[in-house]
Amino acid sequence: MKRYLLQRIGFMLITLFIIVTATFFLMQLLPGTPFTNPEKLTESQLAILNAKYGLDQPVAIQYIQYIGNLVQGDLGYSFQHEGRTVTSMISDRIGPSAFIGLQALVIGAIIGLVLGIVSALRHNSILDYGSVTLAVLGMSIPSFVFAALLQYYVGVKLEWLPVALWEGYSSTLLPSIALSVTVTATVARFIRSEMLEVIGQDYIITARAKGLKENQVIVKHVIRNALIPVVTMLGPLAVSIMTGTLVIEKIFAVPGLGEQFTLSILVLDYSVIMGITIFYSALFILVVFVVDIIYSFLDPRINYKGESA
Amino acid sequence: MSNTILTVDNLHVAFKTQTGKLTAVRGVSFDLKKGETLAIVGESGSGKSVTAKSIMQLLPTATTEVTKGDIVYNGESLLKMTKRQVTNLRGSEISMVFQDPMTSLNPTMKVGKQIMEGVQRHEQVTKAQARERALDMLKLVGIPQAENRLDNYPHQFSGGMRQRVVIALALACNPKVLIADEPTTALDVTIQAQILDLMKDLQKKTDTAIILITHDLGVVANMADRVAVMYGGKIVEQGTLDEIFYNPQHPYTLGLLQSMPKLNEDRSQPLLPIAGSPPNLATLGEGCAFAARCPHTMTVCHTYTPRDTVSETGHSVACWLQDPRIAPSEEAAELVETGNSSL
């Protein structure tokens, strides 16, 4: 187990390093520089700014310096916000994003599980077809379309919930719901197909042959076994929520990390782009890692201890 | 007759398919007596497993249907019972062992728990008592270090050991009838013998009647008191072990016996297969299902379905060759002779 964990952590660091490197050089390919000139700076002012942030150095040197700082946990200063560290910007902004994201995950997982389980149990019924259709719609229509629809109908017409901005709990609901649609659809589809597969297994017949009541068979044998692989969905779902927040936060004017990220890309705030990318990547890599560990506890057939199974 | 615990009478089971109903079991009748072993043999698709599963009513109701006939357990029709009553019988009165021990246990549940579940469902016992029973059962089926094995998962057992667990699970509530659907097919030969011995042994201890479904005549010879040979969804011949092995009357039974390799014969001698292939149940009409492959076909075989001809000892055959309404022909006599001489 220990050996496996160390190996995994090693690979995680390598992955992160590759992401950092790729992002760093890709970012250089973006047209323009952080200080192209909305404020009509003079040549000498630009030279001073570039020198201050190290942009006058060759790219390779900048890269080495960046990695050097990164290893010490220093993500640098923002190019656009005088004197603010990237770390403080991330920690200021992470709250709303995390809240919306987790809330979307919970809403999506619950509705998705219910839909998926019901449609598997009523396989080939109208209920099943209905929820499969919903799931396909939910997966194929991007979340910002739902966001706009929700804003218009729930926010503007019905005036049930705030259209945008970040003013109390009620403003978290629409963005979370918009984000949760993809989660709902993915979870519903996944649990449905898992359930149908488990229902067809021989051990379900064994359970019935024992004389277990149908609800015992469904709860203890079918749902339990179908739920285990759903944990693996957490990784991809986390990604879809993270990318979702980029757009959703913009639409709902939520002061979150995603909104900051899009903003930074627009103004080429190199260090902030790098910082948030690294943060998102690290988070994702961590989620995948945690999922694998959890899985080994849920499914007795999987162990990382190197014992023979 | 009072000795009879289970009666299957003229059972017809149909699958609902897109092109209409497909009758897979077309009139199966047999009696099972307390403590005896009845082997149902036949090739793939002959309706053995469907018959077995319809006794337990484990066939999916969405796609299958008992269209005719009855199944009577202890004087009560299983088909007329409520779903609840049938569920109460499953596992406690009638149990089943399945073909593939690799897939018939829940992979994420400890085996002890899987045995306990059934016990707790049918009997008023505490968790500790159920666990005790599970332990006793594992010991009974010969699993070494049973105490430690209770908390193991199925993947920590070998195939043979898993089948022992499945048997323990099936017998945990002392059922009167055990249906074993090809219990040794997925196991290698030495393990097969162990499992069969175990089943015989347990039968002696518990006096459970066994319906043994198999296509392996070796297994039949080893285990059965009586044998029913199935072909095309029907029982074509039924009798005691000796009657079937030493005095087979139906050409199909004879064909099965002749196609078995024999140890005392010259090895260069090729095996004798039954020519042709099993019938397509969708297109089977009147007449004997075996007629197309039978070496002794007569005109009548193609047009009329043969009835059971039953001897005084209860040996029954569904074949026109044995039907008293047809004058005994030389052909028939010859068949019986070759049957005897080849064994």
Automatic annotation (TrEMBL), chain A:
Question: Where is it mainly found?
Answer: membrane
Q: Which InterPro entries does the entry mention?
A: BPD_transp_1_N (IPR045621), MetI-like (IPR000515), MetI-like_sf (IPR035906)
Where exactly are the transmembrane stretches of this chain? 9-30, 98-120, 132-153, 173-191, 226-248, 268-295
Give its localization. Answer: Cell membrane
What the entry lists under Gene3D superfamilies is as follows:
MetI-like
Whether Ligase counts among this entry's keywords is no
Could you tell me which residue ranges the ABC transmembrane type-1 domain spans?
A: 94-295
Report the CDD domains cross-referenced here.
TM_PBP2
**Looking at the Swiss-Prot or TrEMBL record, what is one Pfam family this protein matches?**
BPD_transp_1
Keyword presence, Membrane: yes
Q: Which PROSITE patterns match?
A: ABC_TM1
Q: What keywords is this UniProt entry annotated with?
A: Cell membrane, Membrane, Transmembrane, Transmembrane helix, Transport
Q: How does it sit in the membrane?
A: Multi-pass membrane protein
Q: Which family does it belong to?
A: Belongs to the binding-protein-dependent transport system permease family.
Q: What is this protein called?
A: Oligopeptide transport system permease protein
This chain's source organism reads: Planomicrobium stackebrandtii
Q: What is the lineage of its organism?
A: Bacteria, Bacillati, Bacillota, Bacilli, Bacillales
